[in-house]
Amino acid sequence: MAIVVNLDVMLAKRKMQSKELAERIGITTVNLSILKTGKAKGVRFETLDAICEVLDCQPGDILEHTK
């Protein structure tokens, strides 16, 4: 089981840089990078909610389950 993080895809669709997203949701660019690369062991619902709010998307647009 693997969870794939498609945050880069959503950022590209919204023509937004990681730095801008990090500033708008209130986390560091380092923590956003850890999330984007799939190295994070978890994500707070509060953070996921903020990302979805800023990118105008659903959690399923960012997170994908693969076998």
From TrEMBL:
Q: Where is the HTH cro/C1-type domain?
A: 13-62
Q: Which SMART domains match?
A: HTH_XRE
Indicate the secretion signal residues.
none
Gene3D superfamilies named among the record's database cross-references:
lambda repressor-like DNA-binding domains
Pfam families, alphabetized: HTH_26
Q: Note the superkingdom of the native organism.
A: Bacteria
PANTHER family in alphabetical order: DNA-BINDING PROTEIN, DNA-BINDING PROTEIN-RELATED
What protein is this chain from? Helix-turn-helix transcriptional regulator
